[in-house]
Design a protein that fits this description.
Blueprint: E1 2-6, E2 18-28, E3 34-39, E4 42-44, E5 47-49, H1 56-68, E6 81-91, E7 98-111, H2 125-129, E8 133-137, H3 139-147, H4 156-171, H5 176-183
Parallel strand pairs: 1-6, 2-7
Antiparallel strand pairs: 2-5, 3-4, 3-8, 6-7
Length: about 180
């Protein structure tokens, strides 16, 4: 598993106030288009936060079924990438202050046929209120969307850095070679 750590402020893991664990899917089709969500003015890959009594596999399976109406199987599979961000003064959702946060995000690269599930998507109230949408894009289109994103969401810079890091890993062929083999 590839691992990337961002720690601009040299925070000690033991001293952060908040630890979040997320898991996301890099859903890529045979045309190398990747499914990207826009949520609260932030571009990111579909997935979400680990809930109580879940492991990362269970979280991703649940989130993709809720957000996209698709079912996946990833049991007993190691994630392809882990990005850790240690962030001083991370802005909490809904302007509820700041926190020093460790955000660990696991990524699974998953072949995708480009079709969302037919079942009714079960979005959270926050996702509905923040206009959660998904689309397939090429890597260059994703880079342009992230680069030219005009949002007032203060958390965008952390998610933009993360999505760009994922794209760099994909473009470096460290992950793309795996997905090309799986898509054949």
């Amino acid at each position: 598993m590839e691992k990337i750590i961002f720690n601009d402020d040299n925070l000690e893991k033991e001293l952060v106030n908040e630890i979040t664990v997320k898991v996301r899917a890099i859903l890529i089709n045979t045309d190398n288009e990747i499914l990207v969500a826009n949520y609260g003015g932030i571009f990111l890959f579909p997935g979400g936060t680990l809930e109580k009594n879940e492991n990362i596999e269970m979280t991703l399976i649940r989130e993709l079924e809720e957000e996209l109406g698709i079912k996946i199987t990833i049991e007993n599979r190691v994630p392809d990438l882990l990005i850790e961000q240690l962030i001083m003064n991370y802005p909490k959702r809904n302007n509820k202050g700041m926190t020093d946060r460790l955000m660990s995000t696991y990524y699974y690269l998953i072949p995708f046929n480009g079709t969302l599930g037919s079942k009714i998507i079960s979005l959270t109230d926050n996702e509905i209120n923040d206009n959660f949408t998904v689309h397939m894009y090429s890597i260059s289109e994703i880079r342009n969307l992230v680069l030219n994103n005009e949002t007032s969401n203060p958390r965008d810079k952390f998610f933009a850095r993360e999505i760009n890091a994922v794209l760099e890993i994909i473009e470096s062929q460290k992950l793309l070679g795996k997905i090309l083999c799986k898509n054949k």
